[in-house]
Amino acid sequence: MNETSQPIELLLSVSRERPGTLGAQIEDQLCCAIRDGTLRPGARVPSTRDLARQLGVSRRIVVDAYAQLAAEGYLSLRQGARPRVSDAAAVPSRPQPPQEPPPPPPRFDFRPGGPDVSRFPRTVWLQSLREALQTMTDADMSYGDPRGVDALRAELAGYLGRVRGVVAEADRVVVTCGYSQGLALTCQALAATGVKRVAIEDPTWPQQLPVLERVGLAAVPIAVDDDGIRVDELARAKVDAVIVTPAHQHPTGVVLSGERRTQLLAWLRDRDAIAIEDDYDAEYRYDRAAVGSLQGRDPDRVVYAGSVSKTLTPALRIGWFVVPPRLLQAVSHEKFLADYGNGRIEQYALADFLRRGELDRHLRRMRVLYRSRRDALVSALAEELPDVAVHGIAAGLHATVRLADGDDDVACAAEARRRGIAVQTLRHYCVDPSHTEPPTLVLSYAQMPEAAIRLGVRELAQAVRAVRAVRA
After folding, report:
1. What is the pTM of this model?
2. Quick check: 228 and 256 in contact, CB under 8 A?
3. 295 inside domain
4. Which among 189, 442, 168 has a CA at the least distance from the CA of 320?
5. Which segments of 56-132 are extended strands (E)?
């Protein structure tokens, strides 16, 4: 079958009751579509035989119309090739104000935010996709339960119970489009129950602030120290919910201590409050044993949240929330209103991926890789900037680097950017403007190989020393 014999549709109609001949109507409509940009230069149009069949007219009418359009420079006609809109038919666009060219990508990118997506197991994932498509029934291809497909929810319940100590039945798992959507759905459900104020850690992940604001909830920052969130401040804050990262606080990297966990759970019971546990990168640990989920100690008051964004790739847009019974119906309804549910083919693929143990294997490989990169970062910092203190390195994908007293972390980050090194300061994560932190940089080691990490730290150290020289 050659190119011209493949049918192609075009939004065009003719009628003998309209003014003008049928051929003139074809010419006028195609000219208008080309002039207003509906049909762009190079766009394919139906063959004369195909368009004649679509319009129910003689092919000769279409042949003559196309010939006239080609003579006027609107169409490009070549023997044996699909007719196309001529490149010369482009309508001159209005002059646009000059735009600034995008900044070049950084030479060294230490900004936290994601895993090394180049290590995504494409071949294994493709096997799971094939398995999903081969085994899904016609009914599975329809909308289904907006909370997610049963197979994935069952696999997640088993996996989370095994590796994170989460207490969950499959019917309490809601599959979401990543953590952000799940947070929005849960906050909407909380707002519907009368919650007005939600406590958040300070410093914290800044992107959750607009989520809370959008659903009408006030964010109340609570300080974090070396033992995690300050529960004594939480008790005085007059809030009915809290968002926490107990396994690996974002961004400081501290673990919520056992005593603080007990205090937080007691506060939840006394206040009859809800905690949202963001378990965003608990799978990556290097120098300590796994810390079980907070949800496992009070599944009726803790919403457990996770996703594949840090373990596999953000491109999958799959997260999960394990929801207490009193919020389950409201969260499920919000999910239904949001999008009728995540893509089901990907959900069946992830269920197969989990069932075959591929996520466990992938995480074992990535822990070895990330630990090696973390060690490269720590050793390079010790060599290039021996007066800094590195924290939060027992787990996760980034470290916090406390500079020497008197250093200006904002100036250091700006000088680093001038040299093509992307870094963030801890101030970037602070909610309360009056919240002062020691001068601290937040450096990710997830997305660069060890050689690049060492070279990047060397140049970062030069930037820090340059700022010190100016201040001196």
Report:
1. 0.89
2. yes
3. yes
4. 168
5. 75-76, 84-85, 108-109
